[in-house]
Amino acid sequence: MIKHLIKGGTLIDPSRGINGSYDLLIEGDRIKRVDEEIFEPEAEIIDAKGLVVAPGFVDLHVHFRDPGQTYKEDILSGSKTAVAGGYTTVVCMPNTNPPIDTPQTAQYVVAKANCYGLCRVLPAGTITKGRKGVELSDFYSLKEAGCVAFTDDGSPVMDAGIMRKALELSVQLKVPIMNHCEDDNLARGAINEGEVSALLGISSRPPEAEDVLNARDCILAYYTGGHVHIQHLTTALGVDIIRHFKEKGAKITCEVNPNHLIFTEEELLRSGGNARVNPPLRRKEDLEALKKALSEGIIDCVATDHAPHAPFEKGRVDSAMPGIIGLQTALPIMLNLVEEGVLSLEDMVRLMSANPARIIGVEAGTLEEGAPADIVIFDPKKEWVLSEETNFSKSKNTPLWGKVLRGKVICTIKGGKVVHKDN
Ligand code: NCD
Ligand code: ZN
Q1: Which ligand sits nearest to residue 62's alpha carbon?
Q2: CB count, 10 Å around CB of 180?
Q3: Which of 101, 305, 347, 379 is catalytic?
Q4: Do β-strands 52-55 and 375-385 pair in parallel, antiparallel, or remain unpaired?
Q5: Which tens digits make up the pLDDT trace of 341-354?
Q6: Domains, the chain, ranges and CATH?
Q7: 109, 160, 320, 346 - which has most CB atoms within 10 Å?
């Protein structure tokens, strides 16, 4: 059996409270041993001196656009981008064409990803057929085909009756129901309702569009006992709503997109369409509240909402398609928060691995002996620029394009196989 020995790194495994200098031995596709000093003459050595060794990151929110819009991204380019960002497990959203509302489409995603074997790509199935918000999908057959969550992401579920039924089913199926919370009747515009929308004279989507659906879903989770996962939380009031219902014992988890932790609506004045995303970039007060919630553990995980679009779909703010790519920029953004003192490095790793893994109940996010050897090795200080040379995505829609970033993935290992190496 092939053996790899990762030597001399700072190993961080929040699932077991490990943070220190340890070696790690991989045998085949599993972690064999973690110890202060390991000698194994048969193993291939991976030198991790000066580097951090952590569980491969888990991203609950990516758009790989496959099937249907593979000019933006596909399962191969998406997988390469994921492992370059340190991710070994991703959940891909079902707003594809066709949507992931049949077992066949879910199986296509799983099979294609397995074929490449770079990254574990787990599909989310739709909550409703065709993402139309009218009729529930067949959760049972979708789960059997590999779906680990249900969501109509991009099209919020507006019918509270449907959402309640979905949450009731989630109790039986033990699968989270994820919602993109923005009430369609309020969120009609392009950017946050505020100073920038007034300045640009652009139609807007107010924060209450998000808060009302967030509150509704928390209430439904409270009454049904179902597990709701609030996607890409962006508002200060949203944090209070989630805290309140968590304290009441409702089964609620939530995620934040790193871009909402560094950019406010003012970024639209600099980056135009590349800063357009749903829910939109908001005010400084919201950003600060999200950071605080992250440090207090109210926010459960970081999810990139990697949303690739072609250059011709971006351009002007008011007509740009919403979405920002994020798989390769998440680690630098999060390391910046560590530098600022918002989070410890250990908390950052937990929010990007153990916590998201627990939300979908997969065997990942840990460096425990016997666990799958899914590992990221990164240099927290290395500077680099996101450019044509370093980008793995088919798209480049991010305000961080061409910017100097700090923190780079040096090596990613998936199931004992080196799937990415920094050159
Ligand atoms: C997402 C996309 O591009 O698919 N865009 C985004 O702005 N987050 C869909 C969505 O979540 O609205
Ligand atoms: Zn969304």
Answers
A1: 1
A2: 23
A3: 305
A4: antiparallel
A5: 999 999 999 999 99
A6: 3-53+371-421 (2.30.40.10), 54-360 (3.20.20.140)
A7: 109
